[in-house]
Each structure stands twice: as C-alpha cells, then as structure tokens.
Design a protein that fits this description.
The chain has 290 residues and is of the alpha/beta class. The protein has helices spanning 14-20, 36-39, 56-59, 75-83, 96-109, 124-127, 157-166, 180-192, 204-207, 215-222, 268-289, and strands spanning 64-69, 87-93, 114-118, 133-139, 167-177, 195-201, 228-234. A seven-stranded mixed β-sheet has the order 3-2-1-4-5-7-6, with helices on both faces. Strand 4, helix 7 and strand 5 (167-177) form a beta-alpha-beta unit. Helix 1 (14-20) runs parallel beside helix 5 and helix 4 packs parallel to helix 5 (96-109). The termini are far apart. The chain binds S-adenosylmethionine. Residues 1-2, 70-72, 92-95, 98, 120-121, 139-142, 214-217 line the site of S-adenosylmethionine. S-adenosylmethionine is lined by residues 1-2, 70-72, 92-95, 98, 120-121, 139-142, 214-217.
Length: 290
C-alpha cells in the first residue's frame, strides 16, 4: 500500500506468495500493449455457424479493457470482474505486497477476466496503447497532501494528460476518495487538462449504491468517511495547458477546521499541526492584548 501503509504481515513471504499466485500476475505488461483484449481472452471454442457471439471465449477477445490503477488488495477488481465477464479488468499496483494480495484474490475468486500487473502509473504509456482503455478507475489514491509531493498524486495534471491518450473515445476516468480536499484538487486538474465532468458527488454510495466496494472504502466508511466521486471524460484539449492550482491539499480544507468531523486519510498529522498552529497564534494574540 502507500508508503505509510507498506507493512508486511508476519509470516508473509513475498516471493512465495508471488509464485503461488503467478497465474494471475502479468510481470511484463509492456508485451501486451495494444493487445490486452485478445491476449488475455480465454481460448476460443468453436460455435455453430450463424450463432450470435457475445462471450469473450466465443469472440476470442474481451469487449473492452478497464484499468484499476492502484488496485491495492484487489477486492474492487475481483468484484467488478465477477459482474462483467466480457470485460478484462487489469489491476495495477506499484507495491509488490499489494500485487501478491490482489493476485491471491483473483485466484481464490476464480475469475478468468482479471489480471494483476506490477507497475507504476508513471509508466502507463508503456503498458497500454493509445485508446486501449475504456475506463480507468482511481479508487482511494494515496493523497500526498504536501505541495512538494503533488506530482505524485494520480490525478495531478501531468497524469490526467497521459490518461487522455490511453482512453478510448468516450472513455472515462472514475475517481473515488474519502478526501474532500483531494476531490476539490482533482476538479481543478480535470479542468486544466480539458476533461468534461460527467458526474460528481459528495456521496457516491448514495448515488451508486450497487457499485462494487473497494477495500479502503469499506474500512474508511466504517470510520465515518463519505465517498467523494467524479466521472470524467476527455473533452477538447485547452490551447494552453499549465498548472495554476494551489498544490497543498491544506488549501482545499474548509476554513473552519473545527467543523471537520472526519479527517481524510493521510491528513491526520497535517490537520493536527494546522490546528495547533492556529491555537498557538490565537494564544499569542491574546497575550499580546493583555
Ligand atoms: C490507499 S490505497 C487504495 C487501494 C484500493 N484502490 C482501495 O480502494 O482499496 C492506494 C494504492 O495505490 C497504490 N499506488 C500509489 N501510487 C501508485 C502509483 N504511482 N502507481 C501504481 N500504484 C500506486 C499504492 O501502492 C496503494 O496500494
């Protein structure tokens, strides 16, 4: 998981796991760029002449390819794959531990239309061809709240520009996050990168109650989080593309921090420091007036 969550459970031997679940892992995704839908389809079986072909196995290819970027332990990946058997779901994560867990989830669920790929979002253009992805899911991305780490966010302007090229016509980017500041920051980036927002919500669970739930979603909602979400599609590319947004996520928090009854994941320390700083300033101002 993200840097701060990359804890290896006791008795977890990574290499062993990766080997045990290797059938669900594609270690060299570059090889499949441009042909994921065919290359991963189960072997075709012969059909009677004139039959209407609908199944990936009959067609010899999946109808579309979707990427779950930063798939974590793979519960969303597996549940999505279960529901739409003609779609290939590629789960990608930069952390080998997550790749191992996600591959285990795929193997145990016995789904033929999900594959896990070790990889970094920075290199997506090597793994997929232009227009190859019908959908990119970014679920509960690592927030990187500090301005100096903003470029690491999966919805930073540069990333959104890279996704534009990989998305099929009318393809969509779908974000879910527990973080209102990350949601607000992402809206600025989508605008700068020329995306059209098709839907946005501060309560995605109410808007789409039947959508598969992600691992983090389950955990954070149990702690009181709301799910913020955005569906967006590339529109015309603006003539001038340039970063003009505030980069620290602190800038997107409500001014009245005391009204905040849920602190988004990864911002706990920042919010606490901010509150302490304010209290100190207020105390200093008060003693100055005495
Ligand atoms: C907070 S977890 C969310 C996992 C999952 N999507 C969920 O909702 O349960 C974020 C995941 O994104 C992965 N990640 C962060 N930056 C990444 C990057 N640049 N490329 C690929 N994966 C990344 C992390 O390793 C981590 O597993």
């Amino acid at each position: 998981m993200g840097k701060m969550h990359a804890r290896m459970p006791k008795n977890f031997v990574l290499e062993e796991r990766l080997e045990r679940y290797a059938s669900a892992i594609e270690p060299a995704p570059e090889r499949y760029a441009g042909r994921w839908a065919e290359a991963c389809a189960p072997l075709p079986f012969s059909t009677e002449k004139g039959a209407v072909l609908t199944d990936a196995r009959e067609l010899g290819r999946f109808s579309s390819v979707r990427l779950d970027l930063g798939c974590g332990k793979g519960s969303f990946l597996v549940e999505s794959a279960r529901r739409e058997s003609d779609v290939l779901f590629v789960g990608m994560d930069a952390e080998p531990v997550c790749v191992a867990y996600a591959a285990q989830a795929v193997c145990e669920a016995n789904v033929a239309n999900a594959v896990v790929v070790p990889g970094n979002a920075r290199k997506l253009d090597r793994y997929f061809a232009p227009g190859e992805l019908e959908r990119i899911y970014v679920n509960f991305p690592t927030p990187h709240p500090k301005a100096r780490d903003a470029r690491e966010r999966l919805t930073y302007l540069d990333r959104l520009l890279a996704y534009r090229a990989l998305l099929a016509p009318a393809g969509t980017l779908r974000l879910k996050t527990d973080s209102q500041p990350f949601f607000a920051f992402t809206l600025t980036q989508l605008k700068l990168a020329g995306y059209e927002v098709l839907e946005k919500s501060c309560d995605m669970r109410a808007a789409h109650p039947n959508d598969p739930v992600t691992g983090y979603e389950e955990r954070l909602c149990a702690q009181g989080a709301s799910v913020y979400g955005i569906f967006a599609t590339p529109g015309p590319l603006p003539e001038r593309v340039e970063q003009t947004a505030a980069l620290s996520l602190m800038d997107y928090l409500p001014h009245d921090l005391d009204s905040l009854d849920y602190v988004p994941l990864g911002m706990e320390r920042a919010v606490e420091n901010f509150r302490n700083r304010r209290t100190k300033l207020a105390a200093r101002a008060l003693s100055g007036t005495r």
